[in-house]
Structure formats: C-alpha cells, structure tokens
Amino acid sequence: MSPEEELRAEAAAEAEAQAVLEKFDRESNVRIWEGVPRSIVRYLMVAFAVYSVLINLVFNWETRIERASFVGGLVFLIFLIFPATKNGKKKPNHIPWYDLLLGFVGGGTYFYFVLNCQAIIKQGIKLENYQVILGAIGVLITLEACRRATGIPIVIVASCFILYALTQKSVALNIYNLFYTTEGVIGTPIRACSTFIVLFVIFGAFLEKTGISNFFIELANSVAGSSSGGPAKVAVISSALCGMVSGSSVGNTVTTGAVTIPLMKSNGYKGEFAGAVEAAASTGGQIMPPIMGAAAFLMVEYANVAYGSIAVRAILPAALYFTGIFITVHLEAKKLGLRGLPRDQLPKFGKLMLAQGYLLLPLLLLVYLIITRTMAMAAVLATVLAIVVSMFRKETRLNLSRFLDALENGAKSTLTVGIACAVAGIIACVITTTGIGTKLITLIVNASGGYLIVALLLTMITCIILGMGVPTTANYVIMATTCAPILIKMGVPTLAAHMFVFYFGIVADITPPVALAAYAGSAIAKSKPMKTALNASKLAIAAFIVPYVFALNPAMLFIDTHWYEVVLIILTSLLGIFGVALGTEGFIYKKIPWLLRVVSIVGGLTLLYPGVVTDVIGLVLVGGIIFYQRMSAKREGQLVK
C-alpha cells in the first residue's frame, strides 16, 4: 500500500470512528466552529479550565459561590457546544438564537445566586416569587443542558424524582432545596466535581497529550501480542489502561477499538466477539484503580472512606474482572487455533520501557500524592509532571497551542461530567428531603423477606436499570443514594455496599437492552449489536459474580483479614475465575461437555468465596476437570497445547 493509500485508509478509519462516537456517545455530538468563532469558543473553554483550577488553589470563596459559579459556567458553555439534536451541528458556525438565550438565561440564574448569595442565605426559605421563578428556570435549563451533553436517561430519572417531590412539598420549598441549598444542584456531587474531579479530568487531558494511549497499546503489544490470539489480549490490556484514564466506556471502546477490533477480526475472531472484547475491557476501565472513572473520588464523600483504602481494596475485584476476560480470550483463541502476531513486528518490552516508560511517572506520582497529600494538590502536581515529561520527545512536546488544546479538551470533558453531577445532585436532594430513600429501603427489605441474597439480587436489577445510558460519575451518585443504603441496612459493610452498586451500575454499559459500549463496539466490528452485547456480558461474567462474593464475605475487599489470608484469597480467587471462565467458554485442551462446564462453574464459585472448606471443594472440582480434560484429549489425540 502506497503512503497516499495509507493516509486515505487512516482518514477513512478516523471518520468512521467519529461517526460511531457521534451515534453512541452523546458528548461527541458537538457543534462545528471555524475561524474566529472557533477561537472564541476555544478561549472560553480554556478560561473555564483555568478558572476551575483557580477556585481550588487561589480563591477562597464561600462554598455556594464557588459551586454556583462553576455550574453557571457549565450551563452556558454546554449551550454553545452541544446542539439540541444530532442534526443541529451540520452547518458550521451556526447556533440558533434560542440556544444563546438558554445559555445566557440558564447561566444567568446561577450568577444571580452568586451575586446575591449572602442575602439569599439570610432569607432562608422565605424566597420572593421572582426568586422561585428564577430557581425553577435554572433547574429546568440545567436538565436540558444535561440532556444535550449526556443523553436523556438521567434526565428522565431526575424528572421522576422532581415530580415525586412536588407531591410532597410546595413548589417554593422544593425550588429552595433544589437550587439554593447545598443539598441540590450545587450539592455533594458538584462539590466533588468542582474541587477535584475537574482537576483529574484536566490531568487526563494533559496525560493524553504525552501520547500515553499509544504507549499503552504498544506496551500491551510487547507483553501479549505474540501469544495465541494476541490482538484480543492487546485489546484487553490497552483498553483497561486507557479506560481507567478516559472515564468513558463508550468513548474508549471507539477510540481504542478503531485500532484493536479490525486487528482482532483479521486475526480470525468473529466480529461479535471482537466488538465484545473491546466493549467489556473498556467498561472495566471504569472500575480500574487508581482513577476508576473519577467515581473513586465521589466514593470518598459518600462512603466516608479514605481514597487510599478504596484504591487498594478495589484492586482484587478489578484484577478478577480482567483476568476473566483475558482467560476467555485465550481459550477462544486456542479453540479457533489462532496465532499471535510475529515477534519481529512487535516492540520489545525492555526497549519500549527505556524509551517511553517515563510516561508512567505522572500516574505513579498521582497515586503516591493522593495517598500522602490532598487530592487537589495531587492532581495539580501530577499535571505539572505530565507537562514536564511531554518535553522529552519532539512528537509530544507541548508548545503553546498544544498546551491550550489540553486545557480545552479538559474543559470539554468536564462539561459532561459536571452537568451529570449537577443533575445527580437533584436526585440526591429529593431522596434526602422527601424520605423516599427510607421508603425504598423498606420496600426492598420487605420484598427480600430479610434474606440478604434476595436483597442483593433486587438491588442488582435496580442498579442495572438505573445505570442504563448514564455517565460513570452520575451513575455512581444515583446508586450511592438510592441502592447502597439498602445493603447497609441489611448488614453489608459500607464500602462493600458502595462497591456492589457501583459495579452493577457500570455493567449497564454492556448489559442488554441498552448496552451502549457493546453497541459502539458492534458498529466498528460490523456485527449484530445484541449478539455483541450478549458476548460482552459473558466476557464480563466476573462483574456479575465478584460483587456478590464481597457483599456476602467482605474478606475479598481485605476487610478484617490478615496478610496470609489476603495472599490465600488472591490465589484462590484467580483460580476461581479461571474455573468460571472454563465453564462459560467450554474449552480447554478440547471441547468440555455441558455437565462438566456446570461443575467447573460451581467449582470456580466455591473458590471465589473465601473459606477453607469452599477452597478445597473448588480445587478438587476445577483441578479434576482440568486433569480429566487433558488426559481425555491426549488419549483421543485432540490435545491442543
């Protein structure tokens, strides 16, 4: 292929990936700005990013002023960036008059609050009629901004909660709670977003400019590219690492999937399987420490647990999730007789680490500083280091234009996260002020008959339904306020309860019927969407099992355990997930009969559940099946090594 043909092919692939993003990822459906208007919008975004940093490091304003000004900026910029419909972006430099009006009025309601904050605080619930109207307008325009930036699911959920609140209290009191207090729109989610999530999002934008995504893909190639079915294993590793930083399962599915999915198909994997691998791995990036799609920082607020503790305790569940996918990919490759990529076409691990390993320094510094310093300071210092390491290579060196690009991209990503947090605050406010949370807890507890396993099942279903099409951060806020208290009431430790609901909110991205990440993967793989989603759910089987294990026995989260118990739990859990993968894939050395597949799954589950008796039973069952399959395949001459 000539250089010109390669350029055309790359451009076509990029255009296809962008089309998929615009279809499945709401935040990619933005207006087209060119020339002077493009520069104006660019510098407004840069200014917002800089302002977000200053309110954390320099300004020392009253809490409500900081949060309201932050949301006001979000709302105004969203109406500049996001059209009302997908067709609204076709004409460059075009923005309807009503979008400008909504942007100025919506943002203006928050800046009215900023300018009159002290007087409104003194008024208490005795609002003037015009203040009630302004607050109502602010809430409604915020909902419309959220619909444009993140999609309609979370708006429907929030609207239902608002309608319920209106049946319990007067309009004026509801508007006061939702708009003028730190219980509503400018509540805990926006506090977390404006004080440190925004800083981590900006850090991620600068990290991308260092070329770390390409480094992750190259690193995965050097580790697993030459093994059986190498391209799929590369997809698992690289998507886990990239998804951890990006914070978007759909966005990561498309960006890394544009490279990995065609490679998997060319290696011999079916389209449904290739799209599913990418979707499952990208979704898993949201549960990958240390960043966990920014939800870990919200978990600090809601679970009242130190960040370091959350990050450490999330390691084993995340490792089991990706181990399950990795093993299934390997067994599928063995079953199909797929080979890896030629070693001479792959980067050498040692040389790669020597040449580009410094790109990991900002992430390592981030983890260290989060544990030892404040999260805001950790994000800022890690960003500074990302800028420094970008200077090591000409390809990634940050000149002024690239520096501004990083700030602009950070601000753009903040818009979707921030507005989702604002609307999540509405849901949290209604739950707090109306007592519906207590009613929901009572309903689930009664429906479960007092049996924890039934309560877990009902909570799982609720989380998957509420999590469909909702961004990671807002997803967790909804689960933390509606579902986690149910499990805590049933005796599940606080962190285990929050991790349980977080996991099942996240897997909604690959669980039919919505499964946005799986559908995005199927669009690139040109496969059947529902079949791709079902394959993704099978690959991510650990995400449906592990939360039950640590909810029933928190030892998996290293709660109330000794170091030697931790070592044993890690070893038996990894073997357990291997047993489950054997059963779901149905192959090792040769095809496994269905009855033995069931036995393998049972053995894997007993190994996953911490305990001496269950470990022994699991070892006997899984080990026995592996031994039997090997002897049988060897005897029949079907042994696939």
UniProtKB/TrEMBL annotation:
A Pfam match: DctM
Transmembrane parts of this sequence: 40-61, 68-85, 97-115, 149-167, 188-207, 310-331, 352-371, 377-393, 414-437, 449-469, 476-496, 502-521, 533-551, 563-582
Protein name, entry field: TRAP transporter permease
PANTHER family: BLL3936 PROTEIN (PTHR43849)
Domain TRAP C4-dicarboxylate transport system permease DctM subunit: 137-560
InterPro entries: DctM, TRAP_DctM-Dct_fused
NCBIfam families reported in the protein's UniProt record: TRAP_fused
KW Ribosomal protein (keyword) present: no
Keywords: Membrane, Transmembrane, Transmembrane helix
Organism in which the protein naturally occurs: Oscillibacter hominis
